Amino acid sequence: MKIRSITYFLNPGMPLDLALIKRAGDFVAQARASYESVGYEVQTTRLATVPFPFLVPSLDDNELCGMAKNLEISALDAGFDYVSLGPALPELPESFKVVPAMIQAAEKVFLSGLMTSDGGYISLPAVKACADIIYQVAKFSNDGFSNLRFGAAANVSAGGPFFPVSYQDFRTGDHQPRFFALATEAADLAIEAARQSDSLAKVRGILIHLVESHAARLTRVSEELADQEKGTHHAIRFGGIDFTLAPFPRVELSFGTAIEQMGVPAVGMHGSLAAAAFLTYSLDLAKYQRAGFNGLMLPLLEDAVLALRAEQGNLNLNDLLLYSAVCGTGLDTIPLPGDISREQLTAILLDLSALAQRLDKPLIARLMPIPGKAAGELTSFDFDFFANSRVQAVRSDGIENLLAGDETFRLAPR
After folding, report:
1. Which backbone phi and psi does 129 adopt, to 5 degrees?
2. Per the structure, how many domains does the chain have?
3. Which of 147, 200, 260, 316 makes a 20 to 30 Å CA pair with 87?
4. How far apart are CA 169 and CA 157, in angstroms?
5. Could you tell me if 326 and 273 are in contact, meaning their C-beta atoms sit under 8 angstroms apart?
6. How do 2-9 and 178-185 pair as beta strands?
7. What's the pLDDT tens digit per position in 132-153?
8. Nearest to 173 by CA among 13, 5, 362
9. Which structural domain, as residue segments, surrounds residue 352?
10. Measured between alpha carbons, how far is 295 from 326 in angstroms, rounded to an integer?
């Protein structure tokens, strides 16, 4: 198991408080050393802010792009690897329009868009705006890679450490202490639990034990780090761990491997949903301080086995959406045809939003149309965190009539 990210949350102010950002960088450097001293590899350190509309309320394109670039430079100088500027917001529809330009302006900046609001509401204008962002950003490079830095979010709260949907709560961002949270790369724990067991009960017990043991060690170090800052102007709190069973694109670090170890011949075949739900419910039973999703991550291009099963035709877009209903974090790093329309993207995002609200769970869509590629063709990414796979077919002709309108409607959980 590794730490995917130490994510530090703050309001950097405008103009940017460079001393505050530098202090945050010093803290995460110390945190990295502390976690590594007890045996955990830290892959990245990340900075997440309040949503960008609260940093530049005018939503002026030039000012926002300048802010994104300046914050990127300051954060990288302070030792961070990536920055999240938070989501565009349904109550500020103009905020969606500036996202493509900001993504183009800064290479290490991630952004998102909220398609839902408190109380179970789905904003059709926000859903369509996120689809339009994905459509535009896909054109920024020949491989569609820039959409890695945008996530369409449904029912996603502040404080989660996994990008691209990390942000600090803007309603209290000026008043609450700064905080940090951990994102794990822990799919191998599920593999270990399945391989050591001759019964489902043992799988569950071993997985809970592994998660709780690692969480206890991580929490102890995290609280010691926070205690060192108490009583100073730099007070910070520990916000928890997102123990989502995230993979890495190697077979021995794949959640797909865990599902198949449970007895499914190939991910995508019947039984996959039951295995994934079982493992995620086991994670639910573990006791630790939580932040973010704490579920199952099925990023198609970041998981070697998922990528292979999709290439073989066993796993498709609808399967992944179905699994999200019982366990997942959504549709993540999904390669789509380059000629997909805004309306087809809207249909996918609307389904995802409906699942998130009806089931009262956080879901994201990180969709990646690949220019020049058709359904069934192979991707050709050269990126250490990706395993190549086939472009997914889309079962949609778009959205029309009432669902293509500009209403906001409610879907309460059952």
Report:
1. -65, -40
2. 1
3. 316
4. 8
5. yes
6. antiparallel
7. 999 999 999 999 999 999 999 9
8. 13
9. 2-410
10. 9
- List C-alpha distances in Å: 296 to 27, 262, 362: 29, 15, 12
What the block records as the tokens of 410 is 């409610």
Query: Sign (positive/negative) of CA torsion 398, 386, 390, 362?
Result: negative
Q: How many beta carbons lie within 10 A of that of residue 225, not counting itself?
A: 19
Q: Which residues contact 127 (CB under 8 A, 6 or more apart)?
A: 115, 152, 346, 349, 350, 353
Half-sphere exposure of 375 (CA within 13 A, CB side): 9
Contact between residue 113 and residue 366 where contact means Cβ atoms under 8 Å apart: no
Q: Which residue type does 113 have?
A: G
Residues 6+ apart with CB under 8 A from 316: 268, 310, 392, 393
What gap in Å lies between CA 18 and CA 6, rounded to an integer? Answer: 20
CATH label of the domain that carries residue 234: 3.20.70.20
The SS3 assignment for 156 reads coil
**What residues form DSSP beta bridges with 242?**
183
Distance CA 50, CA 14 (A): 12
- What lies within 8 Å, CB to CB, of 237 at 6+ separation is 177, 178, 179, 226
Rounded-to-5 percentages of helix, strand, coil across the chain: 45, 20, 40
At 50-67, the pLDDT tens digits run 999 999 999 999 999 999
Q: At what angle do helices 61-77 and 18-37 cross, to 10 degrees?
A: 40
Torsion of CA 47, 291, 163, 176, to 10 degrees: -30
Q: What pTM was estimated for this model as a whole?
A: 0.96
Integer Cα distance of 347 and 343 in angstroms: 6
DSSP reduced 3-state for 330: strand
Q: What region, left, alpha or beta, does residue 292 occupy, with left being phi > 0 and alpha being psi -120 to 50 degrees? A: left
Share of the chain above pLDDT 90, in %: 93
Q: Is the peptide bond between 247 and the residue preceding it cis, with omega within 30 degrees of 0?
A: no
